[in-house]
Design goal:
five-stranded antiparallel sheet, 5 strands, disordered N terminus, Heat Shock Protein 90, nucleotide-binding
Length: 160
């Protein structure tokens, strides 16, 4: 797990890495289906965006991490059954930002609950998502949304 300012009370709550908006060279985001096809949409959007940004060498790692973050949002952050999608009404969004040798992927969801890591069990069929995010990214964390937005943003940072 990353070490960006974690606290004893909530070790996963890390906030975003320092980011000067003036240094962002590229940014893209998309609304995802609130159903499991949202995972496929997220991977495809990430790969297409990275190709456009000429960062195809990162595509496999980032597609894996995006898949895990979106899967967690769909499984744990949405009310069940999932809400019906309307134009731009899905509560799950994927954001990609690139700046000064870094790339961040972030998934916004409507839940205020902290992501929960489980003990590593390599034989388990599920529950390894955040372990994979931690393994493939430079660092990761989450923060609650502010203002009129409800929910949280879970992010992963990569070196470009």
């Amino acid at each position: 797990m990353g070490t960006n300012g974690s606290t004893m009370l909530d070790p996963l709550r890390q906030g975003l890495p320092p980011l000067d908006p003036a240094t962002v060279s590229d940014a893209a985001s998309c609304t995802l289906s609130a159903r499991l096809e949202g995972v496929r949409e997220a991977r495809q959007f990430a790969r297409t965006t990275l190709d456009r940004w000429e960062l195809t060498e990162l595509a496999d790692d980032i597609a894996l991490v995006v898949s895990e973050l979106v899967t967690n949002a769909l499984r744990h952050a949405l009310p069940q059954p999932a809400p019906e999608d309307g134009p731009d009404e899905s509560p799950v969004r994927l954001h990609l930002m690139r700046w000064a040798g870094r790339l961040m992927c972030a998934v916004r969801d409507p839940s205020d609950a902290s992501p929960v890591t489980r003990a590593e069990d390599f034989g388990a069929e599920c529950g390894r998502g955040l372990f994979l995010v931690d393994s493939f990214s430079e660092s990761w964390g989450w923060h609650p949304l502010a203002g009129t937005l409800h929910g949280k943003m879970v992010w992963a940072l990569f070196r470009v």
